[in-house]
Amino acid sequence: MQKSLNIAVAGAGLVGTLLAIYLKKIGHHVQVFDKNKDIREIEFSGKSINLAISTRGWKTLDDIGIGDRIRQLAIPMDKRAIHKVDGSVTHQKYGVDGGSIYSISRGGLNRIMVDIAEEFGVEFKFERKIWDVNLSEPSLFVGKSERGDWEELPFDKIFGADGAFSKIRARMQKQNRFDYSQYFLPLGYKELRIPASADGTHKIDKNSFHIWPHGDFMLIALANEDGSFTCTLFMPFEGEISFENINTEEKLLHFFAEYFPDTKDLIPELTTDYFKNPTSSLVTTQCFPWTYQDKVALLGDAAHAIVPFYGQGMNAGFEDITEMYRQIQKHGDDWQAVFENYENVRKPNGDAIAELSFRNFIEMSTKTADEMFLLQKKIEAKFTALYPERWLPLYDRVTFSLRPYTEALAIGDMQRDVMNEIMATPNIREKWDTEEIMQKMYQLTEN
Amino acid sequence: MQKSLNIAVAGAGLVGTLLAIYLKKIGHHVQVFDKNKDIREIEFSGKSINLAISTRGWKTLDDIGIGDRIRQLAIPMDKRAIHKVDGSVTHQKYGVDGGSIYSISRGGLNRIMVDIAEEFGVEFKFERKIWDVNLSEPSLFVGKSERGDWEELPFDKIFGADGAFSKIRARMQKQNRFDYSQYFLPLGYKELRIPASADGTHKIDKNSFHIWPHGDFMLIALANEDGSFTCTLFMPFEGEISFENINTEEKLLHFFAEYFPDTKDLIPELTTDYFKNPTSSLVTTQCFPWTYQDKVALLGDAAHAIVPFYGQGMNAGFEDITEMYRQIQKHGDDWQAVFENYENVRKPNGDAIAELSFRNFIEMSTKTADEMFLLQKKIEAKFTALYPERWLPLYDRVTFSLRPYTEALAIGDMQRDVMNEIMATPNIREKWDTEEIMQKMYQLTEN
């Protein structure tokens, strides 16, 4: 399909490793550079949020034949479990057709993917930090320290999959006419842990995405294979309820007792976890172009880091690979065409999922606890069952379809307007499932 | 007022040099670092746009007592001169009170300001490039080349006035929770030149800001002291009429003959200028925070690079200095308070002038040629004369007042809505100066 080339991938994370597998499979010589130690030999840092693999991610994994090996590590979640302060739990099914998203730990997934990549013949160069890039050669300047000796390594192509603070992109940013932005939420997050029961089972339902929604802040928990849960507390950095203010054991215990009472026996190491684990920040980065001539291309977070509230960061990164591969199949050795089409297709989708992810914090942390939101979901589900060609809920289009994110954003806005009108119907609580409401929706979705 | 400190200023441009004068005047030891040769010994690069000093800029110069020396080099412009393709020229007065803005060449201004700064006792370190910054010391890593030897120089404070691609800001960008964006217009610019007449006089009116407006592209000309004009051609990079397409002498001459026929005898070296001078890009950068603890602060383009269409880039940078000085007078040695208040006051104003500058391209390149725009200006002027406390036109508030840019943007939006309603009055062309229209404006500005 293509002449075999000497290719460097920056970053041995999920996107870099999977991209390397694709490039190796089609005949290239592929080396992956990462500044960290071999991730199979290190503890992950206590700052991870569990991943939720959904339809787009599975497609990229399945297309190269490794989906089933990953499925063995993944736990299906078919619903949200909403925890209230009175201790009650309500469930909200994902997907009108009963779809599931799959919880997996970042570390576990990354390790097995590096194993698989090595089986394919990909070479990993760990502890080799990239200090600079010559875009026009292209070449990488690699070394142990910035002030020590650097080695200049020439390649035919360089792919930057080195994350939200990509070194490859940092060099591109110095080019004329390179648009770039990084924006941090005033909200941070911290990893906590629910260990397994003594018998190794999960203490709460492993097939639910657990949420404790409280508006400005929330706690979530996703199951791991070993019986534990990775929990993430999202909270403002500053303000009344904030990481800055909750700074003593007493305040912490009081805070959890007030807002998350049913976690008392679930998180035994709360104090240790909270004060030991770092408070991480949440950044959205956007840039353009994503490529330099026919020589360098960015994928994944390096091109479009997003906030985690739609669970699409990794899935969007994997979909970049699917698109790159599609363009390679189409344009072969014409890498200029491959890169141009890749960035023109993916850039608007990167922007769309950034916007959707940004908005979804409100849905997760506020609306999931709101009775009218639940009613709206029921109306949508009923209408979808009656007229499936007329309505696919936004969440389903993002999570359980391969339709472009741009389409999800546009149709989602249209659907929001329709639902605002429907929900403003007098006595909607009583007559939500009547023929009248269904016909009103039918008319509003005409054209 | 303050304990004398050892201060570094990065950048010997206009803002860096003027800031250094202020800091030296209040007793600090000040060194200014610049990667370029002494600007008094070099030719400027043929990529400059003449500056227009207006009220905010003069205030900062006058407050430190150097305004009059600059005035000797500056040429007042009290009006726009709009050139049409039929060769006719119409004039539009600046300012309801007959204010002027002052044309000055960047090179000429920068040279005299370095002279003045040396008279004050500021030390300049030219050809000393900053390769890295240690924000928390703070210290600068300075050297001739990136791979050669660097010297680490410690300071009490570091001020980054090193322009749109600031090295100081680049280091701050790597800090957690640092918001940053750079956005390029799809439009570039190129410097051209109208030389003086044989007798040393100006070939066209020196007291006008000359504009040849054509919507997507435009030519402007501002007078220099030596009888010449610095012209700037603004045009899209790509597209039908673009720098990419106008790439032969034949196309260039045809283009100028069609759109700028009255420049035929004014720009004798058109072909040489056009093909020799670089095509420059136009960037807006925004960031926050502008300071690091009580150690490092950004001013001018390093904090907020804007597009040139409001003529406020340098004026806004100088106003940063005025605000910094105001906070120094207020808080003395409490540099934490100085920096915090400085950035909290100036950041919203930087964002506001960025937005206003962005919008003003449309006004300059399109509306100045539009009959209804001129009518609107006349209505505004009449209303201002009748009710000066009710209406200060947006241009006047930005250019001829010291009111915050944020206020200009907010009131400007309100005024736009009022004028849209006024201009929609039936037969407005006939009755624009009637009592009815004035009373309608009076009512619309009630509150």
Automatic annotation (TrEMBL), chains A, B:
Keyword hit for Flavoprotein: yes
Protein EC: 1.14.13.9
InterPro entries recorded: FAD-bd, FAD/NAD-bd_sf, Kynurenine_monooxygenase
Cofactor(s) for this UniProt protein: FAD
GO term, biological process aspect, one: anthranilate metabolic process
Pfam families: FAD_binding_3
GO molecular function, one term: kynurenine 3-monooxygenase activity
Gene3D superfamilies referenced in this protein's UniProt entry, alphabetically: FAD/NAD(P)-binding domain
Reactions the enzyme catalyzes: L-kynurenine + NADPH + O2 + H(+) = 3-hydroxy-L-kynurenine + NADP(+) + H2O
Coiled coil: none
FAD-binding domain ranges (all copies): 6-354
Keywords assigned: FAD, Flavoprotein, Monooxygenase, NADP, Oxidoreductase, Pyridine nucleotide biosynthesis
Pathway, per record: Cofactor biosynthesis; NAD(+) biosynthesis; quinolinate from L-kynurenine: step 1/3
Oxidoreductase as UniProt keyword: yes
Record function comment: Catalyzes the hydroxylation of L-kynurenine (L-Kyn) to form 3-hydroxy-L-kynurenine (L-3OHKyn). Required for synthesis of quinolinic acid.
HAMAP family in the record: Kynurenine_monooxygenase
Family: Belongs to the aromatic-ring hydroxylase family. KMO subfamily.
Protein name, per record: Kynurenine 3-monooxygenase
